[in-house]
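USER: Write out one fold?

ASSISTANT:
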Amino acid sequence: MKRNAAKGRNQLSRLEDIPNIGPAVAADLRQLGINVPADLLGLDPYAMYDDLCRITGQRHDPCLLDTFIAAVRFMEGAPKKPWWKYTAERKRAMAARESAK
């Protein structure tokens, strides 16, 4: 069923059609070269966040990373969830990254 959900989501035409993605986050995604929802398939949201921070020369609110995670997972077939449902996952992953340094 997850595969069928992802397949139907490939038909979305605008970034703003993805749950949690409004005009501001869509603009951030476009800065990364992501122009349609299907472009998110197979991407690493953590790398996307790092790239955006590098491109813009500023550290963005980590909640933006949660939104990137939610968008990528949704496009891969996960159920629609609010971005804050990914905060705990992001905190664990970021802590693991820090301890690996």
Q: What stands out?
A: Residues 2-100 form one domain. Residues 62-75 form the longest helix (14 residues).
